[in-house]
Amino acid sequence: MKTREGLTDIYISILFSAYILVFAPYTMIAELKFAAFLILSGAYLIGIAVLSVRERSFPAPKPLVLLVAGYFLSTVISALLSPYDYNAIIGASRYDGVLTQLIYCLTFLSVAAFGDLKDRHIYILGAAMTAFCALSITQLLGLDILRLYPEGMTYLDGNVRYSGEYFGTLGNADFSSVLLSVSAAVFLAAIVRKKKLLLIIPLALSILCLAWARVAEGIVGFFGAVAVMAPLSLGKRGKWLAFLELALVTAGLAAVYFIDLGGTLGELHAMLHGTVEDTFGSGRIGIWRAVLGEIPKHPLFGGGPDSMIEWDIEPFSRVVGGKTIYRYIDCAHNEYLNILAQEGIIAFLCAIGTAAYSLRRSLKNGGKIALAGAVSYMISALFGISMYIITPVFIALLAMSMNNTNP
How far apart are CA 9 and CA 46, in angstroms? Predict the structure, then answer.
């Protein structure tokens, strides 16, 4: 048991440092990160398997094992029944096929059985995010010190000279913003609950980069986690804070209803008045409508894991800087909808059941610091993309939140 705990401790330490910081030019970063994902996760899982055979035990909670097994079995059936001709093991576009799903499932169960979020893990994450933010700040200023962008281009050319926005060691601005959000939530929880004041530095840098990059899903994830975790941290007194938060949200919605503030809030104003356009949410409304329209074709097992690029969906377009940008839709930009559409309702229910069981156990056992990061990710996931570049961090935090080393 101790050996498997030690191996998990090493895995978490590498995940929170080297895995985050390993980088390559953005044209090659997806391949590099996938290779790092396979090497790190593969070595960890092989070690856990060997040690578990020797110990003749694997103490993961039985309900959790059944839910995760149900999810993976549904994913396999989804791949076998998929009407599309693609490599379902690897995936059609995002390396998110059966192999990646298997690694997610086994890693989650292993970390849940043998992992705890220790203080040194938080400090390791803090050091990594300090370096991550230092690089990001230079890029947000328009510099390219590490030559990660195509020649002659910088972050400031995003959606003008090239499609998308990229910064940090994760590349895609969406992934980087979610990492900033998740990390900031962990740091804030550790500062509040355990007075780890040294973490003020990576917390401040993470919030600065998050605000500077202005990627909505990361910002919503962080503040959503604060809103959820603050009442939970106050025990019985927390219900009054929850009521106050609800009152503030209601007042905010009322203000947006009567006043058109433009931008994202202007879109919310229109929606509150019954106008919902496909272009809202940077085009997410249109993507969600298109994906929802495909679900009735394969409701039980979906179209196949990571198969959406093969679907007959009209490319997404939006106007940026006076130019119309077209992109093929290869994911739903909502992780929950993505599972429902690609792997079907059975996998979706198993995934929701796994999250619900984990959250219930987390609240019971008191692993609030890891839970803060996991909640931030789950809120961001309403608008985001699951991918091996960032998802393993969430999986580890959710799994460790069920244990109570850091309450």
Answer: 15
320 backbone dihedrals φ, ψ, rounded to 5°: -130, 125
Q: Which amino acid is at 259?
A: I
61-96: per-residue pLDDT in tens? 899 999 999 999 999 999 999 999 999 999 999 999
- How large is the greatest C-alpha to C-alpha distance in the chain, in angstroms? 66
pLDDT at 321 over 70: no
Give residue for tokens 């030019």: 25
Tell me the C-alpha distance between 57 and 160, whole Å: 55
| Residue span of the structural domain in which 377 resides | 2-63+94-250+366-401
Instruction: Measure CA 25 to chain center.
Output: 22
**CA–CA distance, 240 with 246 (Å, rounded to integer):** 10
Q: Is residue 161 part of a domain?
A: yes
Q: What is the DSSP string of 260-322?
A: ---HHHHHHHHHHTT---TTTTTTHHHHHHHHHHHGGGSTTT-S-TT-GGGS--PPEEEEETT
Tell me the sheet residues that pair with 317.
Answer: 326
For residue 207, give the H/E element and its range: helix 200-213
Residue 44: C-alpha distances to residues 40, 50, 98, 150, 166 (Å): 6, 10, 18, 34, 30
pTM (predicted TM-score):
0.94
Query: Which of the 8 DSSP states describes residue 172?
Result: E
Count of domains forming the chain: 1
**Residue 279 placed within a domain:** no
